[in-house]
Amino acid sequence: MKKILIANRGEIALRVMRTAKKMGIKTVAVYSEVDRHSPHVRFADEAILLGPAPSNQSYLVMEKLIAAAKETGAEGIHPGYGFLSENAVFAKMVEDSGIRFIGPRPHAIRVMGSKLAAKEAVRDYKIPMVPGIEEAITDVALAKKIAQEIGFPILIKASAGGGGKGMRVVENLEELPEQMERAISEAVSAFGDGSVFIEKYVTSPRHIEIQVLADTHGNVVHLFERECSVQRRHQKVVEEAPSVVLTPAIREAMGEAAVKVAKACDYVGAGTVEFLLDDQKNFYFLEMNTRLQVEHPVTELITGIDLVEQQIKIARGEKLAFKQEDLSITGHALELRVYAEDPLNNFLPSVGNLEVYQHPVGEGIRVDDGFKQGMDIPIYYDPMISKLITYGQTRDAAIQRMVEAINEYKIEGVATTLAFGKFVCEHEAFVSGNFDTHFVKNYYSPEKLEEYRSEEIELAAALGLKLYLDNKDQLQVPDTTVSNWRKARI
Ligand code: MV4
Questions:
Q1: Same domain membership, residue 311 and residue 186
Q2: Per-residue model confidence as pLDDT tens digits over 440-484
Q3: Which residues line ligand 1 at a C-beta cut-off of 6 Å?
Q4: Which of 209, 231, 234 best tests ligand 1's pocket when mutated (most atoms within 8 Å of CB)?
Q5: By three-state DSSP, how is residue 32 classified?
Q6: ∠ at Cα 155 (151, 161), nearest 5°?
Q7: Residue 224 belongs to what domain range?
Q8: Is residue 33 located within the same domain as residue 47?
Q9: How far is the CA of 315 from the centre of ligand 1 (A)?
Q10: CATH of the domain at 66
Q11: E strands of 235-308, at which residues?
């Protein structure tokens, strides 16, 4: 592959192009009318206009993307994340056009896109799963019977759902009929597929996912875990690797389970197997994400492996150059997603002009972004401005670096989640590692953030005063009342 097209925008398009350039591969950007002057367009060797800003007229139009690849002679298409990255129809269309899809085969995308199909695919592999059923259910009487066997609370999930969409917690038998009816009608309208199933509700889980890499020769390895428990309404806030709670034994068991999940669907490329970890440290397979994830950099930092480079090599048909025993974890990495949203106003998107934009630089700091100072943040896409990633020998060092990096990040013109990120990183529950997926709900409110910020200001003022008092004897205050000329005369 001498040239690839990146079917995406923003930070991830740039991220993929950087590795392509490093590998001597030419890059083709695609863009919508509002993204004409975006860094991903400037960075690429060539760029093709797709159409108007709305995604369904630009980044989601399969025919236009394939035509752009043909026109430029691109031999591969990297889908990034979001948009068409987990669309089996697109992966198939790319393959059928004689272009390499830099990702898994359509079969794996299709199987993992359906939770029930995924459960069925892994059935013979002894993967731990939450107690529940493996078929779609419509009969309320049967649902009641199953719920009583499993025990309340239960969770009704849409098979076609993902990222928390189409889930309903049911606390008791009385609520069940109504909740089930709602879950089904929601699933029909949101996904065009009313299949729902029942699981035991794990009340305070941690979200732990395992990165896998699989080549086309049957080799599969895992690159350890990322913990993504700090999230707000299924939008991840802080991700880290490794997780504070995993013991080497649990890590190994989860890694082995993830490799089996990948094998169960003939996976090829980079993928992520999602698990829940309960308070007894039992883990359960939830679903597999068949794309490069937003939070992949933390894995790159602790393993030293460029995941995009691996994706491209795998797509070229190369064998993995390392075995499981060659891989190890060094240090600790954190990622904070910086959004153009107002944490003091219910995280309302705050689009506008990036009047001031200066990101931190330094050892142990990586910023993956797709904007420059002076640019507008368009309303049409995800409001993520950047990913601030820090690395240290220990978790405490990585947290310390994160807090310092947030302090050095200068963004004006739009509200951002930077202060919220700092609140999280300095919170006792986060620092101690004693948290679960309810972190934000349990500990965050706009009032708490205001209180935290005013405490910070007071602390800074007190520190300034102390420095002054401690050093005032040595401080030389120039005497401005008498000029040196006058003194010289005296
Ligand atoms: C669960 C669960 C509790 N019990 N399944 C949410 C996203 C989707 N991938 C699965 N999710 C959950 N499934 C059972 N049986 C709790 C969640 C969940 C969650 C999972 C990971 C990270 C954040 C979450 C927030 C709320 C609920």
A1: no
A2: 999 999 999 999 988 888 888 888 888 888 888 887 665 555 555
A3: 130, 155, 163-164, 199-202, 205, 207, 231, 234, 274, 276, 286-287, 437
A4: 234
A5: strand
A6: 155
A7: 206-447
A8: yes
A9: 32
A10: 3.40.50.20
A11: 235-241, 269-277, 283-289
